[in-house]
């Protein structure tokens, strides 16, 4: 085979090899799935009472009507006069009203009593590398990024890709950069959720 033809053949083979490698690299770069934040576990509806909620419980239609402000503790319990500890988390205000009414009657404290339960403002907690760490008033459309903005935004030293969200004692690491770019990756918060923004190593 002439030398020139042989050189052309080798050159063509090299070009094919390069194109094959580039094609393979392209397949690898597009084959991975899109980044996603972890899906948070279901924790009842937002209407359900949760630890940290502050309640006003009014007793009417009795000789000694009263109104008590109580907070649901970490175990989901409240304490009321004469009947003691009552499980309050995980139910609605209507359910809790009925439960308290039935308990007062069953213990023969009252023969009949009207009970109303209302919730004061509910909160989430934002700490760490934000402008104003502390409580943020919860609303039904409050997301992670909205809560951070309400707390003064990220500080210059915040590690925004590693926000720690604690719900019901379980920790979940959320990428706030991704949440800002894709609203579908910006998790809705529930009352009592806690956010901790860590400090960047750089």
UniProtKB/TrEMBL annotation:
PANTHER family: POLYSACCHARIDE EXPORT PROTEIN GFCE-RELATED. The lineage of its organism: Bacteria, Pseudomonadati, Verrucomicrobiota, Opitutia, Opitutales. This is Uncharacterized protein. Keywords: Signal. It comes from the Bacteria. It comes from Termitidicoccus mucosus. It holds the Pfam family Poly_export. Residues 123-171 form the Soluble ligand binding domain. Residues 44-120 form the Polysaccharide export protein N-terminal domain. Residues 1-25 form the signal peptide.
